[in-house]
């Protein structure tokens, strides 16, 4: 994963309302947003960012682009991502929510064949505080430091980051891996990336009780990870409740309409067995980080 302020960034669907707002914010933060794509609107500009009809036109004019961000409607996300891969862009962040699961299956097959990293869909993106913003993060909650964050819950990501910032524990990188039914890069992949990141000294996992993705990473954390890990699992202390599903979720998850207490306890037990501290609330995360890093309070 290449993340530096000099790397060129493209925004697909730049004239979508959400993209138009955050393109300006990303550029103001220092992200090198060099172009946008919006079919039929080529030749226009947004805050000095040139807009093209096609990705290949943007690459031809602007040169090699490291990362593209996709804000297009869900049914167009697959075509947008494939167009980016065809233009030799191999870091894709999908902000769009509700991408059809079968479209994601097709995209992930193509991504694997072309060594492309996909983040999302339904993602806040990635932020390296003080350096680069690739997404829709409220930047005032984040500060530069050495705590890496991997999250499946958008709002809680910022809440935990704010608690860390107030405790003078800045973040090295925060990645929202997405919260749709099928996502791109996994928790395990990002644990590996942050384990190799020299700027990250500790890792915070922010997830939800119905994710089911943590258990696949616990063994890696236990056996391979060299850095302390803190977990915050939202909703684990609440009563069993029904999941709020998107229509697309029902296609693949119809039998799973509620939170299984036994599954929740299994996830928690896996964390405890691996000696991963679990915060009961976001405000407890800084205390656990300081303890793990042996920082005097």
From TrEMBL:
Presence of the UniProt keyword Nucleotide-binding in the record: yes
Keywords for the protein's UniProt record, in alphabetical order: Ligase, Nucleotide-binding
Entry keyword Nucleotide-binding: yes
Superkingdom per UniProt: Bacteria
Start and end residues of each CoA-binding domain: 2-99
InterPro entries: CoA-bd (IPR003781), CoA_lig_alpha (IPR005810), NAD(P)-bd_dom_sf (IPR036291), Succ_CoA_lig_flav_dom (IPR032875), Succinyl-CoA_synth-like (IPR016102)
A Pfam match: Succ_CoA_lig
Protein name (Swiss-Prot/TrEMBL): CoA-binding protein
Annotated organism of origin: Floridaenema fluviatile BLCC-F154
């Amino acid at each position: 994963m290449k993340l530096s302020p000099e790397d060129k960034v493209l925004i697909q669907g730049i004239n979508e309302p959400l993209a138009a707002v955050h393109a300006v914010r990303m550029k103001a933060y220092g992200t090198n947003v060099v172009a946008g794509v919006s079919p039929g609107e080529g030749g226009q500009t947004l805050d000095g960012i040139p807009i093209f009809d096609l990705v290949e036109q943007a690459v031809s004019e602007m040169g090699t682009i490291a990362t593209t961000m996709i804000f297009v409607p869900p049914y167009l996300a697959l075509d947008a991502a494939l167009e980016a891969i065809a233009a030799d862009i191999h870091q894709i962040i999908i902000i769009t929510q509700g991408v059809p699961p079968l479209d994601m299956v097709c995209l992930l097959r193509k991504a694997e064949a072309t060594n492309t990293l996909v983040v999302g869909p339904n993602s806040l993106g990635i932020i390296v505080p003080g350096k680069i913003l690739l997404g829709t993060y409220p930047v005032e909650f984040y500060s530069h430091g050495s705590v890496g964050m991997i999250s499946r819950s958008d709002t809680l990501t910022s809440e935990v980051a704010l608690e860390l910032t107030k405790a003078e524990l800045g973040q090295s990188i925060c990645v929202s891996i997405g919260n749709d039914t099928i996502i791109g890069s996994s928790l395990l992949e990002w644990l590996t990336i942050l384990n190799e990141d020299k700027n990250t000294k500790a890792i915070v996992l922010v997830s939800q009780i119905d994710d089911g993705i943590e258990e696949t990473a616990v063994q890696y954390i236990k056996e391979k990870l060299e850095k302390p890990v803190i977990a915050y699992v939202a909703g684990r202390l609440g009563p069993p409740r029904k999941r709020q599903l998107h229509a697309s979720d029902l296609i693949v998850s119809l039998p799973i309409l509620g939170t299984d207490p036994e599954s929740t306890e299994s996830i928690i037990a896996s964390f405890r067995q691996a000696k991963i501290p679990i915060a009961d609330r976001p405000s407890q995360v800084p205390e656990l980080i300081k303890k793990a890093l042996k920082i005097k309070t």
